[in-house]
Specification:
- This protein has 17 helices and 14 strands.
- It has helices spanning 12-15, 24-40, 42-53, 64-70, 76-94, 133-146, 165-173, 184-193, 210-220, 245-256, 271-285, 291-298, 309-319, 331-335, 352-357, 393-409, 413-427; strands at 2-5, 103-106, 109-117, 120-124, 150-155, 178-181, 203-205, 225-226, 234-239, 263-268, 302-305, 323-327, 343-346, 383-391.
- The protein has a 6-stranded parallel beta sheet, sandwiched between helices.
Amino acid sequence: MKTILYPPGETWPTLCRRPVSDTSSLTASVNDIIYRVRAEGDKALREFTLKFDKIAAAGLKVSEREIESAVSLVPDDLRKAIILAAENIEKFHRSQLIKEEPVITSAGVTCMRKNVPLEKVGLYIPGGSAPLFSTVLMLAIPAKIAGCEKVILCTPPGKDGKINPVILYSARLSGITEIYMVGGAQAIAAMAYGTETIPRVDKIFGPGNQFVTRAKEIVQSSGVAIDLPAGPSEVLVIADSSADPSFVAADLLSQAEHGPDSQVVLATDNEKTLRSVKDEIKSQLDKLPRKDIAAKSMNNSLFLLFNNLQDCVSFSNEYAPEHLVINTSEPWTVAGQVKNTGSVFVGRYSCESAGDYASGTNHTLPTNGYARSYSGVSTDSFIKKITFQEISSEGIRNIGPAIQVMAEAEGLEAHKNAVSIRLKSIDNV
């Protein structure tokens, strides 16, 4: 844990830099995977599944029978928890469907914007030691609300050669039945370009390891849309003297256990709070099953003591965290000053875990400082907004002369003529 007392403003940009690693060999490896999937299709997918997952996959598509049988393998209490989370995610994301009314900008000129769902989207769900079935809900539910015609899901097999049943159950609950057992960069390539079995999609969503992330970046450069730039998970907690140190420590560790490259930051104006949180972290860390992972993550952590809460907020806006927890005596006063973050958790009981699972907001959020310019995934992420305009003869009379003057000033005579020829036709009637 790196502790810095009263860091001057000129050092903040340096403190905000995330840990970096050399990705040159990674890029070469991912490019090779993508090339082979484009060239060899399903054959390459099966070979990579054997190489990376140690599974000889007979088929790539999960059968309806496998999906149905997964239901009985999920404990009742977990099923109930998933249903509660799904209902809250549904409520929050359905509220984002807003129909815009046509606008008359000038007499005879009507403009409107219409929501049109993306036709085909692909969802990537990580497996491994922490299969993110919650991400299935976060992506599949808004996709269905948006009205996407085709939603497919790719996820890697476990060591037993099967997909985690909770992932299958969550997909079924969310209305997804087209599921493929393939993971890694090869899954991204398959969804981006299509194979004999897996269809090409228009946009790819979902988190993953560095191979998945790099693959998404590469396919985006060839015209396949992705949800947002992603990196290791991160949280920043603003805490004052009123904060319960055990709450703050728990919030920091909840992100640290994601992976050794996760980063957690504490910003406080109280030295006692800082010391108490550090003590609590040591105590709680020993009790975690993933303590080795969390401990490595804490090597990337920052514990910052500032002169006042205003400096804490200003630093947070500079850092632009994926998650921001505000644990202060007047949290909404602090929240009102937030400019850059993916999602905000306001008040002592608003733990970041709530947003990860069941409050209703989306947990697919921008990391690595991208919260300065990106929003998290929402229903809008699965929608295109197309503008329409209808101009009557009265409308072209009203705005036509302005268009002619502007087109002529830019030297675009054909643009001007498209208006002039219409005005002449009206005058000749």
